[in-house]
Design a protein that fits this description.
This protein is mostly helical. It has one domain (about 10-435): Up-down Bundle (Growth Hormone, Chain: A), CATH 1.20.1250.20. About 85% of the residues lie in helices and about 0% in strands. It is built from 20 helices and no strands. The protein is globular, with a radius of gyration of 21 Å.
Length: about 450
């Protein structure tokens, strides 16, 4: 057997081991992350009436999460890059799980605001930490697909969380004197706390210390990732300071702001969209109906990212899905038939979620080391402030017009802007495409 064949076989074996070891576990953590963040959108179906909270209070409370989420991401990634993912991510997961459980104690608008802010603060380091973690383990040419598999958890959380939250609220309402929404927060937060301790056992900081790889496998992966990091550093030469002042990074930040705004608006208000169109259905049925757009999104985002990896192209794999999402949002505002509205929202969801895997390959193509830690956190933290804006827009439009139509059109415009920004991005096609194999 020739040396190139041996190298190819070794690369395939290592990547398979890494993906099966890390991605399913990261996927599960991200499901819990999204579920504990957005289960408030189901709680609102009971909580607002029981606690006498207004639509505007809910919109602000849902948005305040992103203020806390903004605050700590850059420091968190820099700390993780220094001390390692295993201990740092474990603490993050346990922390947000406990705060998610504490949401059951909401009594008024101020306790709602406070706990949502603290939840955002606790969760802030997880997602950018996981994106950075992938750059330690997954070669560039395989990263969009791996990122999409990880990020499909966001859609999977909707697929699982809708039916689960609806059932918990419906069947446990009044048990032991607690409301259904209180049981939901408690029972969906506890598994997160447990998984936080599992992180200490399962995650490995770097390829160099992976006991579950052979010596040859560790050497190949370490050399591959170090070579890619050196190539990016030689080609772009970014430091943390130059990264935070780089126009390309800020363009990606603005693009992610638009994506995050539309996705957050979708996630937070989908149960209410469906409830208004299907007022005759129970909470468990509403939960099942909300799962439909997420199921379609999971399929679309995996297919889109796999095609992006095969071709090495990223920009169009962000721009085209963004345009499709804009069309879906606009049709959702235009249609009256409830099944057509659900179909339109499914199109919007498929477009939005399909853009994420290729998107996160864009900054990873030119950032490395401390620059990657800071740049990824900057993009995610400021970009996610779009999630602060969207619920406020949708709640204010709903309160003023008694309809979500205007808010849906605003989300459509947001995705059109995202499409234009994606087309403006510079793309390192060659380095991405050639990064998977020696």
């Amino acid at each position: 057997m020739s040396t190139p064949q041996v190298g190819e076989q070794l690369a395939t074996t290592v990547l398979r081991k890494v993906i099966w070891r890390l991605i399913p576990f990261m996927f599960l953590l991200f499901i819990l992350n999204i579920l504990d963040r957005v289960n408030v959108n189901f709680a609102r179906l009971q909580m607002l009436d029981q606690l006498h909270l207004s639509e505007q209070v809910f919109g602000l409370g849902a948005s305040i999460f992103f203020i806390g989420y903004f605050v700590f991401q850059v420091p968190s990634n820099l700390i993780m890059n220094r001390i390692g993912a295993r201990q740092w991510i474990s603490g993050i997961v346990v922390g947000w799980g406990l705060i998610s459980c504490a949401m059951m104690f909401i009594r008024d608008e101020w306790s709602f605001y406070t706990l949502r802010f603290l939840l955002g603060l606790a969760e802030s380091g997880f997602f950018p930490g996981m994106i950075l973690y992938l750059t330690y383990w997954i070669p560039a040419g395989e990263r969009a697909r791996a990122t999409a598999c990880f990020m499909s958890a966001a859609a999977s959380a909707g697929l699982i969380g809708g039916p689960l939250s609806g059932a918990l609220m419906y069947y446990l309402d009044g048990v032991a004197g607690m409301a259904g929404w209180q049981w939901m927060f408690l029972l969906e937060g506890l598994p997160t706390v447990i998984m936080g301790f599992v992180v200490l056992v399962w995650l490995t900081d770097r390829p160099e210390v992976a006991g579950w790889l052979t010596d040859d496998e560790r050497s190949w992966l370490s050399e591959q990732m170090n070579r890619e990091a050196q190539q990016r550093q030689q080609q772009h030469g970014f430091t943390l300071q130059t990264t935070l002042a780089n126009g390309r990074v800020w363009l990606l930040t603005l693009l992610y702001f638009m994506l995050a705004a539309a996705v957050t608006g979708f996630v937070i208000y989908l149960p209410q969209f469906v409830k208004e169109k299907f007022p005759d259905q129970s909470l468990p049925v509403i939960g099942l109906l909300t799962a439909i757009p997420y199921l379609i999104s999971i399929v679309s985002m995996i297919l889109s990212s796999a095609h992006s990896d095969r071709t090495g192209e990223r920009r169009l794999h962000v721009a085209i899905p963004s345009f499709i999402a804009a069309v879906g949002w606009a049709l959702g505002a235009y249609f009256d038939d409830r099944w057509l509205v659900l179909a339109a929202l499914s199109v919007a969801a498929a477009g939005m979620y399909s853009s994420f895997g290729p998107f996160w390959s864009l900054p990873n193509a030119f950032l490395t080391g401390t620059a990657a830690a800071g740049g990824i956190a900057l993009i995610n933290s400021i970009g996610n402030l779009g999630g602060f804006v969207a619920p406020i827009i949708l709640s204010e439009v709903k309160a003023a017009t008694k309809s979500f139509g205007g808010g849906m059109l605003a989300m459509s415009l947001t995705m059109l802007i995202a499409c234009g920004l994606a087309l403006s991005c510079q793309h390192d096609r060659t380095s991405e495409k050639d990064g998977a194999r020696p």
